[in-house]
Here is the input.
Amino acid sequence: MADPLAVLATTGLVFGRVGALVMGLPVFSAAGVPKAIPVFVALGVTLVIAPAQPLVATPNSLGVLVFALAGELMLGLLAGLTVRAIFAALAMASEIMAMQMGLAMATMLNPLEKQQAGPVGALASWAATLAFIANGLHLRCLEGVAASFTVMPAGTWDPNLSLLKHIPEALEAAVHLGVQLAGPVLGLVWFVNVLVAMLARLAPKMNVFFSIGMTLTSVLGILMLAPSLPWMLAVHGAALQTAVERLAVAWGTP
Here is the structure.
């Protein structure tokens, strides 16, 4: 008969890794999502995975179990941060565009970042969340963490810390992606500013910036954003797909 303490310890370690990943994913931790949803999702995945796991050795002390649980939490959080960084790229691009378009003065709640953001950022965050769910990437993340236990059973430690190298790579990709997504609107705003500067030189007594510049920047920016949003979501979705696949490779799973 299996040792009840070993069963309980194994289940707790599995729940630690899965729960940390679920809490790190922006889809489950967004504002408006009931607090019980991440817990129930992590618990459901744990109940499926834990029975198939080899039992860990009965811990000799509470300190050993706490150290193993901390390792599982770290692995799950690192995995979630690699995906969350790509979500931050779209939020950064949206804030840059809103600031340049003069729409940053109007703010509303960004459900993913849980802070006040411009309407462009809130719209882009909701659209990115829907695209993430529609492509089944949240299921791919859960599938990857489930498969990771075959390579790295509960209670073991990865001596290479392969997930750590993906954090700076994800941050670098997020900054590059943010600038890339904001590129079309930034180019348009630059062109409008050059035009306004030329008009200001031609009519120095006319307040061109406030009478023409701000209105023209906002109107043309919105007109540019409308056809650019599908492209932005496609590029962002491809980046998220790449991040999830790299996460699966980091776990050592196909």
